[in-house]
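User: Predict structure, ligand zinc ion.
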Amino acid sequence: MKIFDGLYFYPWESYSQNNCNSLMITGKVNTLIDPGHQALFPQLAKQLESDGIDYKELDLAINTHSHPDHFEASVSLASYNVPIAMHPAGEDYLKKIGPAFSQALGHKMPEYHIDLYLVEGELELGETRLQVYHTPGHSPGSICLYWPERKVLISGDLIFSQGVGRTDFPGGSGTLLKESIERMAELEIEVLLPGHGPAVFGAQDVKRNFQFIKQMYFQML
Ligand SMILES: [Zn+2]
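Assistant: Predicted complex:
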């Protein structure tokens, strides 16, 4: 789904297979965000191809966090010399917990190498300037990407349409999740693109979504 020139959103719509939503920022630096599970990547590759994007030619693969359903296929992209980016705490997490986590989900932890660390601050992708926010809670290395010029928030598994990321995985924290959500709620957002489920369009609906989340989930976190 093309959101506007230079931004594509690929929601995962299967009920039987867990995978994340993926995104593409195109331009001078063609960047795939959250490549998803290895076994399900061919389906994303087909969608990318129909939008004229060859995954073997990508310039960067960003991971909003290092859970396998977002990160795993990054490793096969690396074999085409696509650099892999994530927050340093995401790599720590992979080293400490990754193998057991993958095993629990019935996958083998792949070999990987992180090329670029994404820390809080500006990230220039050619003509596109993004703001990286470190937003722990769902996982220690979770990040959100904010595109100020277009008022887009790519929220990973921090928040969804009418939902929040799980905090019961290793390294999860309800307190940190709430703090991270409060920070993101301060931004001017017109398009919310979460790591699972549908997008939220329009500043009013995004605001309502934050209010709903605070009312429904904050007491339980
Ligand atoms: Zn996750």
